[in-house]
Design a protein that fits this description.
The chain has helices spanning 19-31, 84-88, 91-94, 107-114, 125-138, 170-177, 182-197, 211-225; strands spanning 3-5, 11-16, 42-44, 56-60, 63-67, 73-77, 99-102, 144-148, 160-167, 203-205. It has 226 residues and is an alpha/beta fold. Helix 6 runs antiparallel to helix 7.
C-alpha cells in the first residue's frame, strides 16, 4: 500500500475508505462544510501516527480533517467563577498521558492578533471556537480534558465522550469574580450558571473547596468515564 508523508513528516499508511468508516468521515466533513467523495479520501491508521486511539485523518483535495471514531475528550463546563482555570493547573499531574486544555488559554494571544480584547466581543467567538478546534485536532487521538464555557449544543460534532459541570453557590461566584469585571459580569455569570444547571450534567460543587481537591474529583471522573 502506498505511503504518504503528512505535514509533520510522519509516514502514514493510507488505505481507501469504504463502508461505515466512509460514512463516518463523510458526515464529519459535511458538518464542516466540505463536499465528500469516498473515492478521493484516504484513511490513516492511528498507529501510524504513534497513538493507540483509532483516529482517522483524512485528506480531501489537500485539506486534512481529523475524525475520531472513539471520542477521547472529557469536557468540563463551568460558568465564570466556577474554578476551571485554578483547577486546570493541578490536572496534568493527576492525569498523566492526558492533555489539559483551558478554553481561555488562547484569549491573550488571540486578542493581540485581533488588536483588542476578544473575551467579551461576541463577534469573535465563532472564530475563537474554530481556533480551539484546530488545537483539539492537533492532538487527535490523545486523551484530553477541555475546560470551557461552551455547552454540548455549542460543541456538537466535537470528539467529546463525556461532560461534567463545575458549579458553585451564587454568593461564592460573586465573591470570586469581585473586581474582575464589575457587577454586570458577575450577574451574567450567575445567569449562565443557572442555565448550565438545567442541562442535567454530572456536577462537582466547588463551593468553599480548594482547587487541588476539585482537581482530584475531576481526575476521578475522567478515569471512570474512560
Amino acid at each position: 500500500m502506498p505511503n504518504s508523508p503528512d505535514q509533520r513528516g510522519v509516514n502514514q499508511q493510507c488505505i481507501p475508505t469504504s463502508g461505515t468508516r466512509a460514512g463516518l468521515i463523510g458526515r464529519a466533513l459535511q458538518a464542516r462544510g466540505h463536499w465528500f467523495d469516498p473515492s478521493c479520501a484516504h484513511q490513516v491508521r492511528g498507529s501510524a501516527l504513534g497513538v493507540s486511539s483509532p483516529i482517522v485523518a483524512v485528506r480531501v483535495n489537500g485539506d486534512q480533517v481529523s475524525v475520531y471514531p472513539d471520542p477521547v475528550i472529557t469536557a468540563v463546563l463551568g460558568a465564570p467563577g466556577s474554578g476551571k482555570s485554578s483547577t486546570a493547573h493541578h490536572l496534568p499531574g493527576l492525569l498523566p498521558g492526558h492533555v489539559v486544555l483551558d478554553w481561555d488559554a488562547f484569549i491573550e494571544p488571540a486578542s493581540a492578533l485581533a488588536g483588542h480584547d476578544i473575551k467579551h466581543d461576541t463577534r469573535t467567538w465563532p472564530t475563537y471556537r474554530a481556533l480551539v478546534r484546530v488545537a483539539v485536532d492537533a492532538i487527535a487521538g490523545v486523551p484530553a480534558v477541555l475546560l470551557s464555557v461552551c455547552t454540548p449544543a455549542e460543541l456538537a460534532g466535537w470528539p467529546i465522550g463525556a461532560w461534567l459541570l463545575l458549579d458553585c453557590a451564587d454568593h461564592e461566584r460573586r465573591r470570586r469574580l469581585h473586581g474582575l469585571g464589575g457587577r454586570a459580569s458577575a450577574d451574567d455569570a450567575i445567569t449562565d450558571a443557572a442555565a448550565y444547571r438545567e442541562l442535567g450534567l454530572p456536577v462537582i460543587d466547588t463551593t468553599g473547596r480548594a482547587p487541588e481537591a476539585v482537581a482530584m474529583d475531576i481526575a476521578r471522573f475522567v478515569r471512570q468515564a474512560r
